[in-house]
Amino acid sequence: LAQGRVVGFEALMRWRHPTRGLVPPSVFIPLAEDSGLIVAIGAWALQVACRDAARWPGEMRVAVNVSALQFERSPIEVHVLEALERSGLPAERLEVELNE
Predict the structure, then answer these.
(1) How many CA atoms lie within 13 A of 25 on its CB side?
(2) Among the listed residues 52, 71, 74, 67, the one whose alpha carbon sits nearest the alpha carbon of residue 8
(3) Angle of the 76-87 helix axis to the 38-54 helix axis, nearest 10
(4) For 14-32, what is each residue's pLDDT tens digit?
(5) N or C: which end of the chain has fewer CB within 10 A?
(6) What residues does the EAL domain cover (predicted)?
């Protein structure tokens, strides 16, 4: 911001339910963790964020939040490497943030 330019974005997940409207992450993330779906959802989020960021001009970065449970229950490094390989996004343009 010191130079007045955008250098990156944070990928945020939202769920638009057909009847309940917008369901906040504070509701659906714990459900995903309890059901064991957080690993698949997290891997998908990494794939989409990297794919989209690879299309951005210049060296813009993307930050992706990872659940602590996803970090514990899955080989997160494998998911990150797969997302980078499939998208062609250089690793230095991806930030992985660990949520507690």
Answers:
(1) 11
(2) 52
(3) 30
(4) 999 999 999 999 999 999 9
(5) C
(6) 1-100
How far apart, in whole angstroms, are the C-alpha atoms of residue 30 and residue 92?
30
- Cα separation, 5 vs 56, whole angstroms: 14
**DSSP state, 24?**
P
The per-residue pLDDT for range 53-100, each reduced to its tens digit, is 999 988 999 999 998 888 898 899 999 999 999 999 999 999 999 986
The helix or strand, by DSSP H or E, that contains position 67, with its residue range, turns out to be strand 61-67
Cβ atoms within 10 Å of 66's Cβ, excluding its own: 20
HSE of 53 in the Cβ direction (CA atoms, 13 Å)? 30
Which of helix, strand or coil describes residue 62?
strand
Instruction: Compute the distance between CA of residue 38 and CA of residue 80 in angstroms, rounded to an integer.
Output: 15
String of DSSP letters for 69-100 = HHHHHS-HHHHHHHHHHHHT--GGGEEEEEE-
